[in-house]
Amino acid sequence: MSEEKKRVSRRDFLRLAGLSAGVGLAAPRLKGMAEPKAGATYADPAARPNRPWWVKTVEEPTIEINWDKMERFNEQMGSVRGPGMAKYVGQDEVDRLKKVNAQRTTERILANEPGYSLKDQALYSSHGVRVGRSYLGPQKAATPEDRGVPKWQGTPEEAARMLRVALRHYGAAQVGFVELDDKTRKLVYSHDPDGKELIFTDDAAASETDDARYIPNQAKWVVVYTVRMSTETLKRAPTPVGAQTTSLAYNRSENIQAQLQEFLRGLGYQGLGESSTNALTIAPAMAVMSGLGELGRINRLITPEFGPMVRIFTLITDLPVATDKPINAGITEFCKTCKKCAEACVPGALSLETEPTWEVQGGWNNPGHKTWYENSVKCLTYWREEVQTNCGTCFAVCPFAKEDKAWIHQWVKGGIASVPALDGFVRSMDDTFGYGQKDPESWWNEDLPEYGIDTMKTVQEA
Q1: What is the pLDDT of residues 170-203, one digit of tens each?
Q2: Is the whole model's pTM more than 0.85, yes or no?
Q3: Please, are residues 407 and 31 in contact by the beta-carbon 8 Å criterion?
Q4: Residue 25, exposed/middle/buried by CB under 10 A (0-12, 13-18, 19+)?
Q5: Are 211 and 296 in contact (CB under 8 A)?
Q6: Which of 147, 184, 206, 369 has the fewest CB atoms below 10 angstroms from its CB?
């Protein structure tokens, strides 16, 4: 980063100092907010959380979108996660990377390499056992018809409150809602990872065949929720120790989805879930539209409360709910100056350009929005060839990837949102304090709470 970007004018510094004084005076209150409050309730009729003062609701996301250019994305053949990788690099290269991946994994276990030892790999593998996902859900809960009673009725705000409370109880961190229209339908995949086509239909009930999944047009509300990852664990990236917190979040989401589907069924409504990992919708895009966070340089969601340390999941329902709007917390703007993730990206898969662009880097990118498109082929090749796991370095070094255990973090986030000229200064402070990746072996000596996260902290308290 240039020295010019690090410099802060006297006027901006005084503005930051004023912000510091305000938050400093509020520090005791912020500390008190970290304490769980018995009987605390939502003030908003739809149970929207009372977010930090610098998070502003806006009509459009902080990234520009060209809906005319955007098309529904084929997740099976377009993404590098599945058979699409062979389309970009050839099957021989895919086979070579698989062989290298297996060989390097064995070598690292035999060498007892910290972060890659047998205990590390065993921990990583333990999260591969899953209860499974399904589009239509378990379908075991008694319906209102089974019970001989009418289905649940209420206002959209009451429905949103009900689902937020239930999802928080199931283990979700944040919850938002999006209505499907001619624009947002483009964020629903054209084909799922298994190749089944997703088709909108006038049928009243959702259905599934060997070739397709049918979404009723009356099911036009998307439930978007996040599951937190352990910040301390992911800072051990790129190793299996760091990667397993991602797997743990996916595992937890399977139970959350199944429970939500059964809950909706019990109310008399449909819940159409992800049939597999990364299915149904472009989850980060839905999260942006529902106001859970902003799209960052890493091409992933960055939330005001938990930074990038979340995984995102979606479900489509015919239960009318009060929807949400995008937010502006200064995050996308901060990414223009920061570039820390791109500088730390070993394969150079992330853009170092200051301004986002409309130009994609390959077929794995979905056009139609202005952002810092990534080179997914470089990213996945690095996973297979060098680290034998998913990477996560960009998450680990992100300045937003830290727990708000001190009021100074609230001060910094407020400064980012209200005084953009300070972004370079904040980035330099993050470097100075040495936030980022940690020794993977030290993780085994950490005394961490359940799941490695502070589960007592709600979005309102974050």
Answers
A1: 999 999 999 999 999 999 999 999 999 999 999 9
A2: no
A3: yes
A4: exposed
A5: no
A6: 147
